[in-house]
Design goal:
single chain, 3 helices, about 45% helix, two-stranded antiparallel ribbon, alpha+beta
């Protein structure tokens, strides 16, 4: 499912106009992004949790040339599925 399919499903199941369903989904995603970039963790009971993981820099190698390169530190989003979602997907 992609974002437009999610919006369509929300509109169909709640009888909202497509524009309002789109606004709801966009507000939800924007709020989640804002929370994560602010250093907060997001937990949706029964579904899972999101957090930002910080990775330190390291020295890597270019696989083609073997040249050593410095890889900068980075922050990446991380999702962990909740127990109920895991159980549901393993039925």
């Amino acid at each position: 499912m992609n974002k437009s399919e999610l919006i369509k499903t929300l509109a169909d199941e709640t009888y909202l106009p497509l524009e309002e369903a789109s606004a709801v989904v966009n507000i939800l995603f924007d709020s989640m992004k804002s929370s994560l970039t602010g250093g907060n963790r997001i937990e949706i009971r029964g579904f899972g949790s999101f957090k930002i993981k910080e990775y330190g820099g390291y020295t890597g190698r270019n696989p083609k040339t073997g040249e050593r390169i410095a890889v900068a530190p980075k922050r990446l989003p991380f999702f962990r599925a909740g127990r109920e979602l895991k159980e549901f997907t393993n039925k």
